[in-house]
Prior knowledge:
about 270 residues; 6-stranded mixed sheet; alpha+beta; SH3 type barrels
Amino acid sequence: MQRGVLTLAATAAALALWSVAAAADPVAIPANIFLPTQGGGQYLAKDLLLGGKVYNADGKIIGDIEDLILNSNNQIEGVVMGTGGFAGFGEKHVAVLLSALQIKNEDGKITISLPQATKEVLDALEPFQRVSPPKSLLDRAIEKAHELTDKGSVTAKDAYDKAKEEAGPALEKAREQAKETYEQVRKDAGPALEKAREQAKETYEEIKKKAGPTLEKAKEAAKDAYGKAREAVETMPKTGPATPGEAPVAPESKPAAPPEKTPDAP
């Protein structure tokens, strides 16, 4: 019962916190900074370029786009494409100007092709040279850890303190409602508990009443058996010493008769 009341109080508190957050003052969004939706002439790099398969003039896949090359004005100038190899091993990276790629959207399916990239051309190309080495997996993991820490710690404490402060009256009201509910349930359950006690008492008395003659008869039988056993023990003949240390009495025996005389030999 108490567990159910506590659950009710916790639910009420959660609803109070949600209502407080929903009623918070709206935040002013700076103008000309964020893009609310994707425009008709815009595309997302992950949907179109990054990871996209590149086809040659014969319609065969010659590689996939793994990275983008930006200029000093943050405009895309080209892409880095992985070619050859198997399952990532022995793969060669080559760079291609973005303007050289033919991007088509036919019936909602986007295809990227590079007709000039024949097998001979790709084999003859030198691998793309980076100015700085790529980030290692460890560097990326550290950056991700810092990102998660910063995102979680910047506003979590402030939001918690504010919600706790604003939800104070709601929590107090929830506690009072939970207390009233508990008292009401306890009050309603009182007669039922008392009735259960009375029924249990009546059942016990009824069983005791029915079992009374049987118990009395068993007592009398046990008493008679005990008396008979005691009487039998008292009437038994004594075969041992009456008191400790007394030697047992040997039974009386008649003296042996003298041997009969025999006639002398001639």
